[in-house]
Protein backbone atom coordinates (compact mmCIF):
# COMPACT_ATOMS: atom_id res chain seq x y z
CA UNK A 1 0.00 0.00 0.00
CA UNK A 2 2.88 2.31 0.87
CA UNK A 3 4.49 1.61 -2.50
CA UNK A 4 1.23 2.40 -4.28
CA UNK A 5 0.89 5.75 -2.48
CA UNK A 6 4.53 6.56 -3.28
CA UNK A 7 3.86 5.75 -6.92
CA UNK A 8 0.78 8.03 -6.92
CA UNK A 9 2.81 10.89 -5.46
CA UNK A 10 5.56 10.34 -8.04
CA UNK A 11 3.08 10.33 -10.91
CA UNK A 12 1.44 13.48 -9.58
CA UNK A 13 4.82 15.18 -9.35
CA UNK A 14 5.64 14.10 -12.89
CA UNK A 15 2.36 15.54 -14.19
CA UNK A 16 3.04 18.85 -12.42
CA UNK A 17 6.57 19.02 -13.85
CA UNK A 18 5.30 18.27 -17.37
CA UNK A 19 2.59 20.89 -16.94
CA UNK A 20 5.19 23.43 -15.84
CA UNK A 21 7.43 22.59 -18.80
CA UNK A 22 4.47 22.89 -21.20
CA UNK A 23 3.48 26.27 -19.78
CA UNK A 24 7.08 27.45 -19.99
CA UNK A 25 7.28 26.47 -23.65
CA UNK A 26 4.00 28.18 -24.44
CA UNK A 27 5.06 31.30 -22.56
CA UNK A 28 7.78 32.14 -25.09
CA UNK A 29 8.48 35.88 -25.13
CA UNK A 30 8.79 37.13 -28.72
CA UNK A 31 10.25 40.36 -30.06
CA UNK A 32 9.36 41.40 -33.61
CA UNK A 33 11.84 44.09 -34.60
CA UNK A 34 12.34 46.47 -37.56
CA UNK A 35 8.71 46.11 -38.61
CA UNK A 36 6.42 48.54 -40.41
CA UNK A 37 3.60 48.31 -37.91
CA UNK A 38 0.03 49.19 -38.90
CA UNK A 39 -1.31 49.73 -35.39
CA UNK A 40 -4.88 50.64 -36.48
CA UNK A 41 -4.85 53.11 -33.59
CA UNK A 42 -4.26 56.85 -33.36
CA UNK A 43 -0.52 56.03 -33.55
CA UNK A 44 -0.99 55.13 -37.21
CA UNK A 45 1.93 53.40 -38.95
CA UNK A 46 5.19 52.95 -37.03
CA UNK A 47 8.39 52.45 -39.01
CA UNK A 48 11.26 50.22 -37.83
CA UNK A 49 9.19 49.41 -34.76
CA UNK A 50 9.50 46.69 -32.16
CA UNK A 51 6.53 44.73 -30.81
CA UNK A 52 6.89 42.46 -27.79
CA UNK A 53 4.54 39.48 -27.32
CA UNK A 54 4.27 37.51 -24.09
CA UNK A 55 1.63 35.21 -22.58
CA UNK A 56 -0.58 35.62 -25.64
CA UNK A 57 -0.71 39.42 -25.35
CA UNK A 58 1.04 42.43 -26.83
CA UNK A 59 2.99 43.69 -23.82
CA UNK A 60 5.14 46.48 -25.27
CA UNK A 61 5.68 48.59 -28.38
CA UNK A 62 9.03 50.24 -28.98
CA UNK A 63 10.40 49.66 -25.46
CA UNK A 64 13.78 51.18 -24.66
CA UNK A 65 15.03 47.84 -23.40
CA UNK A 66 13.63 44.36 -23.69
CA UNK A 67 14.40 40.68 -23.17
CA UNK A 68 13.02 38.02 -25.44
CA UNK A 69 13.29 34.26 -25.90
CA UNK A 70 13.01 34.73 -29.64
CA UNK A 71 13.73 37.79 -31.80
CA UNK A 72 12.41 38.10 -35.35
CA UNK A 73 13.90 40.75 -37.61
CA UNK A 74 11.04 41.84 -39.88
CA UNK A 75 13.46 43.71 -42.16
CA UNK A 76 10.92 46.43 -42.82
CA UNK A 77 8.08 44.06 -43.66
CA UNK A 78 4.49 44.95 -42.72
CA UNK A 79 2.98 43.84 -39.41
CA UNK A 80 -0.81 44.12 -39.07
CA UNK A 81 -3.45 42.93 -36.64
CA UNK A 82 -4.89 39.59 -37.69
CA UNK A 83 -7.92 40.07 -39.91
CA UNK A 84 -11.31 39.11 -38.48
CA UNK A 85 -13.81 37.48 -40.82
CA UNK A 86 -17.53 37.73 -40.09
CA UNK A 87 -20.92 36.35 -41.09
CA UNK A 88 -19.69 33.06 -42.54
CA UNK A 89 -20.07 29.31 -41.98
CA UNK A 90 -16.40 28.53 -41.34
CA UNK A 91 -16.10 25.32 -39.32
CA UNK A 92 -19.78 24.51 -39.82
CA UNK A 93 -19.73 23.62 -43.52
CA UNK A 94 -17.02 21.54 -45.17
CA UNK A 95 -18.50 20.86 -48.61
CA UNK A 96 -21.57 22.90 -49.49
CA UNK A 97 -22.92 20.27 -51.87
CA UNK A 98 -22.65 17.45 -49.31
CA UNK A 99 -25.54 17.61 -46.84
CA UNK A 100 -23.80 15.58 -44.13
CA UNK A 101 -21.03 18.18 -43.88
CA UNK A 102 -23.43 21.08 -43.27
CA UNK A 103 -24.21 22.01 -39.66
CA UNK A 104 -25.05 25.70 -40.03
CA UNK A 105 -28.84 25.30 -40.25
CA UNK A 106 -31.71 23.18 -39.04
CA UNK A 107 -35.42 23.24 -39.70
CA UNK A 108 -36.09 23.57 -35.95
CA UNK A 109 -33.46 26.26 -35.32
CA UNK A 110 -34.73 29.31 -33.43
CA UNK A 111 -33.35 32.25 -31.45
CA UNK A 112 -31.60 29.87 -29.03
CA UNK A 113 -29.78 27.96 -31.80
CA UNK A 114 -26.10 27.66 -30.80
CA UNK A 115 -24.21 26.33 -33.83
CA UNK A 116 -20.89 26.56 -31.97
CA UNK A 117 -21.60 23.07 -30.63
CA UNK A 118 -20.93 21.75 -34.15
CA UNK A 119 -17.83 23.86 -34.87
CA UNK A 120 -14.96 21.81 -36.30
CA UNK A 121 -11.57 23.46 -35.61
CA UNK A 122 -9.91 20.79 -37.75
CA UNK A 123 -11.82 21.77 -40.89
CA UNK A 124 -9.52 21.86 -43.92
CA UNK A 125 -10.96 25.29 -44.72
CA UNK A 126 -9.45 26.87 -41.60
CA UNK A 127 -5.81 26.52 -42.64
CA UNK A 128 -6.81 27.70 -46.12
CA UNK A 129 -8.46 30.76 -44.58
CA UNK A 130 -5.34 31.59 -42.58
CA UNK A 131 -3.56 32.20 -45.90
CA UNK A 132 -5.56 35.42 -46.16
CA UNK A 133 -4.18 36.77 -42.89
CA UNK A 134 -7.37 35.88 -41.03
CA UNK A 135 -6.80 34.89 -37.41
CA UNK A 136 -10.39 34.73 -36.13
CA UNK A 137 -13.96 34.63 -37.35
CA UNK A 138 -17.45 35.63 -36.27
CA UNK A 139 -19.37 32.56 -37.42
CA UNK A 140 -23.07 32.85 -38.20
CA UNK A 141 -25.76 30.15 -38.35
CA UNK A 142 -28.20 30.05 -41.24
CA UNK A 143 -31.22 29.20 -39.07
CA UNK A 144 -34.37 27.37 -40.04
CA UNK A 145 -38.07 28.16 -40.24
CA UNK A 146 -38.06 30.56 -37.28
CA UNK A 147 -38.00 34.35 -37.58
CA UNK A 148 -34.57 34.24 -35.88
CA UNK A 149 -31.65 32.31 -37.38
CA UNK A 150 -29.86 31.75 -34.06
CA UNK A 151 -26.79 33.25 -32.43
CA UNK A 152 -23.28 33.90 -33.71
CA UNK A 153 -20.05 32.86 -32.02
CA UNK A 154 -16.38 33.79 -32.30
CA UNK A 155 -13.52 31.36 -32.92
CA UNK A 156 -9.83 31.88 -33.49
CA UNK A 157 -8.26 29.97 -36.38
CA UNK A 158 -5.55 28.22 -34.39
CA UNK A 159 -7.06 24.85 -35.24
CA UNK A 160 -7.07 23.91 -31.55
CA UNK A 161 -10.05 22.25 -29.88
CA UNK A 162 -10.39 25.20 -27.48
CA UNK A 163 -10.48 27.77 -30.29
CA UNK A 164 -14.03 29.04 -29.61
CA UNK A 165 -13.50 32.26 -27.67
CA UNK A 166 -17.04 33.67 -27.37
CA UNK A 167 -20.34 31.79 -27.56
CA UNK A 168 -23.80 33.21 -28.30
CA UNK A 169 -22.54 36.77 -28.70
CA UNK A 170 -25.15 38.18 -31.13
CA UNK A 171 -28.65 37.34 -32.40
CA UNK A 172 -29.23 36.95 -36.12
CA UNK A 173 -32.41 37.67 -38.07
CA UNK A 174 -33.20 37.59 -41.81
CA UNK A 175 -35.59 40.22 -43.16
CA UNK A 176 -36.55 41.45 -46.60
CA UNK A 177 -38.18 39.83 -49.63
CA UNK A 178 -39.86 36.44 -49.30
CA UNK A 179 -40.45 33.72 -51.87
CA UNK A 180 -43.77 33.16 -50.12
CA UNK A 181 -45.58 35.68 -47.94
CA UNK A 182 -44.88 39.29 -47.06
CA UNK A 183 -41.85 41.00 -45.58
CA UNK A 184 -44.30 43.04 -43.51
CA UNK A 185 -45.17 40.04 -41.33
CA UNK A 186 -41.54 39.47 -40.35
CA UNK A 187 -41.11 43.11 -39.32
CA UNK A 188 -44.43 43.03 -37.48
CA UNK A 189 -43.54 39.79 -35.70
CA UNK A 190 -40.20 41.23 -34.60
CA UNK A 191 -41.89 44.35 -33.25
CA UNK A 192 -44.51 42.27 -31.43
CA UNK A 193 -41.95 39.97 -29.83
CA UNK A 194 -39.94 42.91 -28.55
CA UNK A 195 -43.07 44.72 -27.35
CA UNK A 196 -44.39 41.67 -25.50
CA UNK A 197 -41.05 41.08 -23.81
CA UNK A 198 -40.79 44.76 -22.86
CA UNK A 199 -44.24 44.63 -21.23
CA UNK A 200 -43.22 41.64 -19.12
CA UNK A 201 -40.03 43.38 -18.02
CA UNK A 202 -41.86 46.61 -17.20
CA UNK A 203 -44.43 44.68 -15.18
CA UNK A 204 -41.67 42.88 -13.28
CA UNK A 205 -40.00 46.18 -12.40
CA UNK A 206 -43.25 47.58 -11.05
CA UNK A 207 -43.82 44.52 -8.88
CA UNK A 208 -40.35 44.59 -7.31
CA UNK A 209 -41.85 45.87 -4.06
CA UNK A 210 -44.04 42.81 -3.68
CA UNK A 211 -43.54 40.33 -0.83
CA UNK A 212 -40.68 37.88 -0.85
CA UNK A 213 -43.18 35.06 -1.26
CA UNK A 214 -44.46 36.53 -4.52
CA UNK A 215 -40.92 36.90 -5.78
CA UNK A 216 -40.19 33.30 -4.90
CA UNK A 217 -43.24 32.10 -6.78
CA UNK A 218 -42.42 34.15 -9.87
CA UNK A 219 -41.81 32.03 -12.96
CA UNK A 220 -38.36 31.94 -14.45
CA UNK A 221 -38.16 33.20 -18.06
CA UNK A 222 -37.83 30.59 -20.79
CA UNK A 223 -34.63 30.29 -22.78
CA UNK A 224 -35.93 32.26 -25.76
CA UNK A 225 -37.31 34.94 -23.43
CA UNK A 226 -33.87 35.34 -21.82
CA UNK A 227 -32.35 36.01 -25.24
CA UNK A 228 -35.01 38.61 -26.11
CA UNK A 229 -34.43 40.23 -22.72
CA UNK A 230 -30.71 40.40 -23.50
CA UNK A 231 -31.52 42.22 -26.75
CA UNK A 232 -33.70 44.72 -24.91
CA UNK A 233 -30.97 45.27 -22.32
CA UNK A 234 -28.41 45.92 -25.04
CA UNK A 235 -26.35 42.95 -23.86
CA UNK A 236 -26.43 41.30 -27.29
CA UNK A 237 -26.35 42.98 -30.71
CA UNK A 238 -29.19 42.26 -33.13
CA UNK A 239 -27.66 41.44 -36.52
CA UNK A 240 -30.34 42.08 -39.14
CA UNK A 241 -30.02 41.02 -42.76
CA UNK A 242 -31.85 43.63 -44.83
CA UNK A 243 -31.11 45.21 -48.21
CA UNK A 244 -34.02 47.50 -49.15
CA UNK A 245 -33.92 51.04 -47.82
CA UNK A 246 -37.47 50.83 -46.43
CA UNK A 247 -36.54 47.74 -44.37
CA UNK A 248 -33.46 49.52 -43.08
CA UNK A 249 -35.53 52.52 -42.00
CA UNK A 250 -38.00 50.21 -40.26
CA UNK A 251 -35.13 48.63 -38.34
CA UNK A 252 -33.76 52.04 -37.36
CA UNK A 253 -37.20 52.86 -35.95
CA UNK A 254 -37.17 49.64 -33.90
CA UNK A 255 -33.69 50.46 -32.63
CA UNK A 256 -34.93 53.82 -31.38
CA UNK A 257 -38.12 52.36 -29.92
CA UNK A 258 -36.39 49.60 -27.93
CA UNK A 259 -32.82 50.97 -27.58
CA UNK A 260 -31.43 48.01 -29.48
CA UNK A 261 -27.77 47.44 -30.27
CA UNK A 262 -28.53 47.10 -33.98
CA UNK A 263 -26.11 46.03 -36.71
CA UNK A 264 -27.18 45.95 -40.37
CA UNK A 265 -25.97 43.06 -42.53
CA UNK A 266 -25.98 43.07 -46.32
CA UNK A 267 -27.56 46.50 -46.62
CA UNK A 268 -27.07 46.83 -50.38
CA UNK A 269 -29.26 49.95 -50.53
CA UNK A 270 -27.80 51.51 -47.37
CA UNK A 271 -26.27 54.31 -49.44
CA UNK A 272 -29.80 55.71 -49.96
CA UNK A 273 -30.22 56.24 -46.21
CA UNK A 274 -26.58 56.59 -45.13
CA UNK A 275 -27.26 59.83 -43.24
CA UNK A 276 -29.95 58.17 -41.13
CA UNK A 277 -27.75 55.13 -40.44
CA UNK A 278 -24.84 57.33 -39.39
CA UNK A 279 -27.09 59.47 -37.15
CA UNK A 280 -28.40 56.31 -35.44
CA UNK A 281 -24.80 55.09 -34.97
CA UNK A 282 -25.61 51.73 -36.53
CA UNK A 283 -22.72 49.71 -38.00
CA UNK A 284 -23.05 48.01 -41.38
CA UNK A 285 -21.58 44.64 -42.36
CA UNK A 286 -21.41 44.50 -46.13
CA UNK A 287 -19.52 43.25 -49.18
CA UNK A 288 -17.21 45.40 -51.28
CA UNK A 289 -17.95 43.62 -54.54
CA UNK A 290 -21.76 43.65 -54.79
CA UNK A 291 -22.00 45.85 -57.86
CA UNK A 292 -24.94 44.10 -59.53
CA UNK A 293 -28.53 43.77 -58.25
CA UNK A 294 -29.22 40.41 -56.65
CA UNK A 295 -32.90 41.24 -56.31
CA UNK A 296 -35.31 44.17 -56.41
CA UNK A 297 -34.15 44.88 -52.86
CA UNK A 298 -30.59 45.63 -53.97
CA UNK A 299 -30.79 47.88 -57.00
CA UNK A 300 -28.10 50.27 -55.79
CA UNK A 301 -25.13 47.93 -55.48
CA UNK A 302 -21.84 49.59 -56.42
CA UNK A 303 -18.11 49.11 -55.90
CA UNK A 304 -18.07 52.59 -54.35
CA UNK A 305 -20.68 51.84 -51.66
CA UNK A 306 -18.23 51.13 -48.84
CA UNK A 307 -16.38 54.40 -49.44
CA UNK A 308 -19.70 56.28 -49.62
CA UNK A 309 -20.94 54.83 -46.32
CA UNK A 310 -17.68 55.52 -44.48
CA UNK A 311 -17.55 59.10 -45.78
CA UNK A 312 -21.10 59.53 -44.42
CA UNK A 313 -19.85 58.50 -40.97
CA UNK A 314 -21.00 54.88 -40.89
CA UNK A 315 -18.83 52.26 -39.21
CA UNK A 316 -18.39 49.51 -41.82
CA UNK A 317 -17.26 45.89 -41.56
CA UNK A 318 -16.15 44.04 -44.68
CA UNK A 319 -17.61 40.58 -45.23
CA UNK A 320 -17.36 38.06 -48.02
CA UNK A 321 -19.98 36.63 -50.37
CA UNK A 322 -18.19 33.28 -50.54
CA UNK A 323 -19.60 31.60 -47.45
CA UNK A 324 -16.66 29.83 -45.85
CA UNK A 325 -14.75 28.65 -48.93
CA UNK A 326 -13.18 31.89 -50.17
CA UNK A 327 -12.61 33.82 -46.97
CA UNK A 328 -8.89 34.00 -47.67
CA UNK A 329 -9.78 36.39 -50.50
CA UNK A 330 -11.30 38.93 -48.13
CA UNK A 331 -8.17 41.08 -48.38
CA UNK A 332 -8.59 41.23 -52.15
CA UNK A 333 -12.11 42.59 -51.64
CA UNK A 334 -10.59 45.27 -49.41
CA UNK A 335 -8.18 46.07 -52.23
CA UNK A 336 -11.12 46.46 -54.62
CA UNK A 337 -12.73 48.89 -52.17
CA UNK A 338 -9.46 50.86 -52.02
CA UNK A 339 -9.41 51.01 -55.82
CA UNK A 340 -12.90 52.50 -55.66
CA UNK A 341 -12.41 55.37 -53.24
CA UNK A 342 -11.76 53.83 -49.82
CA UNK A 343 -8.54 54.84 -48.08
CA UNK A 344 -6.15 52.07 -47.04
CA UNK A 345 -6.36 52.93 -43.31
CA UNK A 346 -10.16 52.74 -43.44
CA UNK A 347 -9.99 49.48 -45.41
CA UNK A 348 -7.74 48.05 -42.70
CA UNK A 349 -10.28 49.05 -40.03
CA UNK A 350 -13.09 47.19 -41.83
CA UNK A 351 -11.17 43.95 -41.29
CA UNK A 352 -9.78 44.62 -37.82
CA UNK A 353 -10.72 47.36 -35.37
CA UNK A 354 -14.30 47.86 -36.56
CA UNK A 355 -15.08 44.16 -36.18
CA UNK A 356 -13.49 44.10 -32.73
CA UNK A 357 -15.49 47.15 -31.63
CA UNK A 358 -18.86 45.84 -32.83
CA UNK A 359 -18.39 42.36 -31.35
CA UNK A 360 -16.46 43.54 -28.26
CA UNK A 361 -13.28 41.56 -28.96
CA UNK A 362 -9.86 42.23 -27.44
CA UNK A 363 -8.13 42.23 -30.82
CA UNK A 364 -8.10 44.15 -34.09
CA UNK A 365 -5.37 46.58 -33.07
CA UNK A 366 -1.67 46.41 -32.31
CA UNK A 367 -1.66 47.99 -28.87
CA UNK A 368 -0.48 47.04 -25.41
CA UNK A 369 -2.93 44.65 -23.73
CA UNK A 370 -4.52 43.40 -26.94
CA UNK A 371 -4.50 39.72 -27.89
CA UNK A 372 -1.38 38.85 -29.85
CA UNK A 373 -3.18 37.97 -33.09
CA UNK A 374 -0.78 39.54 -35.55
CA UNK A 375 0.42 38.87 -39.09
CA UNK A 376 3.71 39.66 -40.79
CA UNK A 377 3.39 40.30 -44.55
CA UNK A 378 6.05 40.46 -47.23
CA UNK A 379 4.28 43.48 -48.80
CA UNK A 380 0.95 45.36 -48.90
CA UNK A 381 -1.67 42.81 -47.72
CA UNK A 382 -4.25 44.25 -50.13
CA UNK A 383 -2.09 43.42 -53.14
CA UNK A 384 -2.72 40.18 -55.03
CA UNK A 385 0.96 39.22 -55.13
CA UNK A 386 1.63 39.60 -51.38
CA UNK A 387 1.54 36.76 -48.88
CA UNK A 388 1.72 35.96 -45.19
CA UNK A 389 5.28 35.48 -43.93
CA UNK A 390 4.43 34.58 -40.33
CA UNK A 391 1.20 34.48 -38.34
CA UNK A 392 0.67 34.45 -34.58
CA UNK A 393 -2.60 33.60 -32.83
CA UNK A 394 -2.63 34.25 -29.08
CA UNK A 395 1.11 34.80 -29.36
CA UNK A 396 1.73 31.35 -30.83
CA UNK A 397 3.07 30.93 -34.36
CA UNK A 398 0.72 28.97 -36.61
CA UNK A 399 1.23 27.47 -40.04
CA UNK A 400 -0.43 28.71 -43.21
CA UNK A 401 0.12 25.44 -45.05
CA UNK A 402 -3.21 24.15 -46.33
CA UNK A 403 -4.59 21.00 -47.87
CA UNK A 404 -4.21 22.66 -51.27
CA UNK A 405 -0.46 23.06 -50.68
CA UNK A 406 -0.14 19.39 -49.76
CA UNK A 407 -2.08 18.35 -52.86
CA UNK A 408 0.16 20.52 -55.05
CA UNK A 409 3.26 18.94 -53.54
CA UNK A 410 1.80 15.49 -53.99
CA UNK A 411 0.97 15.99 -57.66
CA UNK A 412 4.19 17.86 -58.47
CA UNK A 413 6.50 15.41 -56.73
CA UNK A 414 8.93 13.67 -59.04
CA UNK A 415 8.58 9.93 -58.84
CA UNK A 416 8.86 6.73 -60.85
CA UNK A 417 5.26 6.13 -59.87
CA UNK A 418 2.29 7.72 -61.69
CA UNK A 419 1.33 11.32 -60.72
CA UNK A 420 -0.09 11.64 -57.18
CA UNK A 421 1.53 8.40 -56.05
CA UNK A 422 4.57 8.39 -53.82
CA UNK A 423 6.86 5.67 -52.53
Write the layout of secondary structure elements.
Layout: H1 2-26, E1 30-38, E2 45-54, E3 57-61, E4 70-73, E5 78-81, E6 83-88, H2 124-130, E7 134-139, E8 148-156, E9 164-174, H3 183-206, H4 212-217, H5 223-232, E10 238-242, H6 245-258, E11 262-266, H7 274-279, E12 284-286, H8 305-311, E13 316-318, H9 330-339, H10 344-351, H11 353-359, E14 374-377, E15 388-393, E16 396-398, H12 403-412
Parallel strand pairs: 1-4, 1-5, 6-7, 9-10, 10-11, 11-12, 12-13
Antiparallel strand pairs: 1-2, 2-3, 5-14, 7-8, 8-9, 14-15, 15-16
Your description of this structure?
There is one protein chain. With 423 residues, the protein is an alpha/beta fold. It has a domain at 82-365: Alpha-Beta Barrel (TIM Barrel). Helix content is 32%, strand content 22%. The protein contains 12 helices and 16 strands. The protein has helices spanning 2-26, 124-130, 183-206, 212-217, 223-232, 245-258, 274-279, 305-311, 330-339, 344-351, 353-359, 403-412; strands at residues 30-38, 45-54, 57-61, 70-73, 78-81, 83-88, 134-139, 148-156, 164-174, 238-242, 262-266, 284-286, 316-318, 374-377, 388-393, 396-398. Helix 3 crosses helix 5 (223-232), helix 3 packs parallel to helix 6 (245-258) and helix 9 (330-339) packs antiparallel against helix 10. The radius of gyration is 24 Å and the shape is globular. It starts with a helix and ends in an 11-residue tail after the last helix.
Structural class of the secondary structure composition? alpha/beta
pLDDT average, as an integer?
A: 91
Q: What general form does the structure show?
A: globular
Report the span from N to C terminus.
53 Å
CATH superfamily of the domain at 82-365: Metal-dependent hydrolases
Sheet having the most strands: 8 strands, mixed
Count every beta strand, where a strand is a DSSP E run of 2 or more residues.
16
Query: For this structure, what is the CATH class of the domain at 82-365?
Result: Alpha Beta
Amino acid sequence: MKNINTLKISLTSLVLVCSFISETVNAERIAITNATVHTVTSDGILNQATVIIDEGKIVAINPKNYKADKTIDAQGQILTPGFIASMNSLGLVEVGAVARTRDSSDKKADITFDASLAFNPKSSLIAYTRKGGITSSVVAPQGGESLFAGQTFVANLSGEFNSITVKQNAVLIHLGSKAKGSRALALQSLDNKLADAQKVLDKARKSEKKSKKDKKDKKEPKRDELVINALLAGEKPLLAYADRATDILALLALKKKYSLDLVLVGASDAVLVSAQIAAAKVPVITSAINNLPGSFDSLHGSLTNMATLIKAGVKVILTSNGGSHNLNQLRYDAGIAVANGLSKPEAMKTLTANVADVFKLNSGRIAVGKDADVVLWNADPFELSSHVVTMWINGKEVSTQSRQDKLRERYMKKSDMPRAYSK
